[in-house]
């Protein structure tokens, strides 16, 4: 089950959350064995984000994956997420940060995998 947390300074309407959720569901399939059926998306909007001590109009994306994935797929996913945020929110790629955590264990469905 992949997990994507989207933290942004912008206030997101329900319609834009739905659009971003759908697009992230489509984009997660870039990574083999991942798909929208297992995807959890978490939006945290209206945040204050600072970089180099200055407030920025930006976003931080946290992607968590169960097990490791190939670098080429993670790179493509990252590039597409940057494009998505620029197209939908007007946030320039240089103001977006994304980390990917690949975890060996994952709890879900009442068990640890």
Automatic annotation (TrEMBL):
User: SUPFAM superfamilies given for it?
Assistant: Tautomerase/MIF
| Name by which UniProt lists this protein | Macrophage migration inhibitory factor
């Amino acid at each position: 089950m992949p997990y994507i947390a989207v933290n942004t300074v912008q206030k997101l309407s329900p319609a834009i959350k739905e659009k971003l959720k759908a697009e992230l569901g489509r984009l997660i399939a870039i990574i083999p064995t991942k798909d929208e059926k297992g995807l959890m998306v978490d939006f945290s909007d209206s945040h204050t984000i600072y970089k180099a001590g200055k407030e920025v109009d930006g976003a931080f994306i946290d992607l968590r994956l169960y097990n490791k994935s190939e670098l080429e797929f993670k790179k493509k996913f990252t590039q597409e997420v940057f494009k998505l945020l620029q197209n939908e929110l007007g946030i320039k790629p240089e103001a977006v940060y994304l980390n990917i955590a690949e975890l060996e264990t994952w709890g879900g469905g009442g068990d640890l995998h």
